[in-house]
Amino acid sequence: METSVKKNFPVTGLSCASCAISVESMLKAQDGVIDAAVNYANSTAWVEYLPGTASLNNFKSVIQSIGYDLLIEDEGHNQQEDIQVMHYKELKNKTFWASILALPVVVIAMFLMDIPYANWIMLILATPVVGWFGRGFFINAWNQVKHGKANMDTLVALSTGIAYLFSLFSTVFPEFWHNRGQHPHVYFEAAAVIIAFILLGKVLEERAKSNTSSAIKKLIGLQPNTVIVIQENGQEKEIPFSQVIIGDKLLVKPGDKIPVDGEIISGSSFIDESTITGESVPVEKEKGGKVFAGTLNQKGSFVFVAQKVGGETILARIIKMVQEAQGSKPPVQKLVDKIAGIFVPVVMAISVLTFVIWIIFGGDDAVTQALLAMVSVLVIACPCALGLATPTAIMVGMGKGAENGILIKDAESLELAHKVNAIVLDKTGTITEGEPAVTDIVWNVNESNQAEFEQILYAIEAQSEHPLAEAVTAFLKPNSDNRIITDKFESITGKGVVTSYGTHVYLVGNQKLLDDYKVSIPKAGTTQIEVWQNEGKTVILFARDTELLAVIAIADKIKKTSAKAIAELQNQGIEVYMLTGDNIQTAKAVAQKVGLKNFKAEVMPSDKANFIKELQNQGKVVAMVGDGINDSHALAQSDVSIAMGKGSDIAMDVAKMTIISSDLQLISKAIRLSKLTVNTIHQNLFWAFIYNLIGIPVAAGILFPIWGFMLNPMIAGAAMALSSVSVVSNSLRLKLMNLE
Questions:
Q1: pLDDT digit string (tens) for 197-242?
Q2: In 592-692, at which residue ranges do the beta strands (DSSP E only) sit?
Q3: Other Cβ atoms within 10 Å of 48 Cβ, number
């Protein structure tokens, strides 16, 4: 039986959520396709298909037939990114020039209608706005019509097209109206302003989506371009990363990225594995130790044998899982687009019905009244207010967030955050500072001698390559001038360092080292060590000969605001969980200090993502908060992803929100901001629909039999503009609201 494959393809040309639905339905209809999902937010399509039955070229051609494009095989993400950049620049240019040309049309229509050749001037200015800068709406609308569909582009094209053509007719043939006792009204300003406003909304939307592919690009950038392989004759040879095969012996020098997964066969070093585990303290590796692609070697050199290469490495799996998690998300729900699918044919039907009724019952002036009423319906039903309802609220909401140190990448997360009822927190760099530091030091010497011993300890640790030594030197540096030079410095793997100064031997390391040198530890010191270890701290001992001089505790400090922030979230009824790659003892100590009952230790990146899936399967809306590359899969899997601003660039690229200051208290503010923004969007949509529900029947002439009132299309255009102003004004109220 043929095995299916699942691949990710960039899609270009998507302009709305219903476009994504169209592409998805076309892909699903192809031979050999088992399933397909198109994500409008990051313009990608995940397709599961049978390679022997399905044809990628058919995928591409069928998508091109409906006005979009599918980038297959080697076209990839770089081309998609280039296309997105070009599209964004083009969209900004269109918006700028459409606005420049639309402005004088509005001024003339509102205040200078009596100047000579006013209609012709407006025609000249509005024509490039509608025919050139707005041509995309008409092209997309036509592609939708060919497949029996309607979306926001259809509504824009219909309303602006009718308004423009009606105005063009009135300008070229004014006598048609004069002969019937009517003034030749024109609505060029309505057509031009609609195009400019909708283009502006698309610019705001594209700006929020523009960086979606950079996270994958940076993850791929963790892989080196070339590696050094040790040949059978012992000679070193530099080869491309892609040529590494299982069994190759690879040399890794200080500062190098580790290219593939494997096992050390000679040498030793400290390796920063934060890309995989998220933990800030580099791990000591020696012969037999496992190393992973994408991690960073620090000061030592070693040779390791390749065991997993290509798509089998942990880094490659993280890249693939991030792509899957991003691609598997449902398209951003655009309520307006969905409603437009019903709204457009309804408005068209009403306008046609209006025309027919006026033709039948309009009396002597039936044709004129019928045309005016039909155009009034189409103009007043313009989607301007509907189109602005969401983007203006989102724009103001994002600005409000930025003022408060909350960067929001897209509308989906801002709309969804208020529904969050479970939050998963990474430990290192999220709850804690993310950097090991000396928290406590107890000296077992006279105060008069302490300064000298501090200088000796600083001198020893300054020579050490151990990452914890940096925490000690950072702590002692203000009190030390480092003039002391020790002799016979020796590093003992897994224990610490031994050196001599004067006639004495000095030891810095763990209890195993001190036991080897028969150093006696007082009872008070033993008690202190146990207390600190139970608190999840790493203990370093400093001794001279057989005498203990000091006990030092090093830990990743908990942020001052973490406990308060977690309490605030729990008080809102949100379940808070902590996941960490650290050991159970440290995790338990941190959890107790910040008031957390739910935590898991020693978890890998995939474990975090699977845990989030479990919560989602229980019906929970889950937010993930992290700062490391290792969190990227979990961030992509979550409903609302939040990155700490002092963390990795990749975490911030994957996440839809970023807390600039890394203060967890801002999460509560982000949830509050989401609630206020969503309320504003609902208010905007309510007023936009109420306006249409009242305006369309009035424009159709429902009041004429009762009061003899017939809505002039010019008033319909003004009402449309007023509806837009009311929506924008309501959105601006967000600026005045408090997030506390």
A1: 778 767 765 664 454 344 455 666 677 888 999 988 888 899 888 7
A2: 598-600, 622-626, 640-644, 657-659
A3: 15
Query: How many C-beta atoms lie closer than 10 Å to residue 480's C-beta?
Result: 19
The burial of 82, by beta-carbon neighbours within 10 Å (0-12 exposed, 13-18 middle, 19 or more buried), is given as: exposed
* Measured distance CA(139)–CA(136) in Å, rounded: 5
Give dist(CA 646, CA 608) in Å, integer. 21
Contact 108, 118 (CB under 8 A): yes
Residue-wise pLDDT tens digits, 542-554: 999 999 999 999 8
Residue 274 has φ and ψ, to the nearest 5°, of -60, -25
- As its CATH architecture, domain 433-557 has 3-Layer(aba) Sandwich (3.40)
Nearest to 725 by CA among 388, 390, 400, 397: 388
DSSP 329: S
Tokens 């949100």 -> residue: 574
Query: What number of residues does the chain have?
Result: 740
| CATH (one of 2.102.10.10, 2.70.150.10, 3.40.50.720, 3.40.228.10) for 223-316 | 2.70.150.10
On whether the CB atoms of residues 553 and 589 are closer than 8 A, the answer is no
426 noted as active-site residue: yes
* CB within 8 Å of 204: residues ≥ 6 apart: 391, 394, 395
Q: Given 3.30.70.100, 3.40.50.2000, 3.30.70.420, 3.40.50.620, which CATH number is that of 5-71?
A: 3.30.70.100
Name the residue ranges covered by the structural domains of the chain: 5-71, 223-316, 406-432+559-671, 433-557
The residue annotated as part of the active site, out of 69, 248, 410, 426, is 426
Quote the pTM value.
0.59
Residue 514 dihedral angles phi and psi, to the nearest 5°: -65, -35
| Per-residue 3-state assignment (H helix, E strand, C coil) for 241-306 | HHHCCCCCEEEECCCCECCCEEEEEEECEEEECCCCCCCCCCEEECCCCEECCCCEECCCCEEEEE
- Looking from the CA of 177 toward its CB, the CA atoms found within 13 Å total 18
Q: Could you report the per-residue pLDDT of 102-151, keeping only the tens digit for each?
A: 999 988 887 887 788 888 999 999 999 999 999 888 887 887 787 777 66
Decide if domain 406-432+559-671 falls under CATH 3.40.50.1000. yes
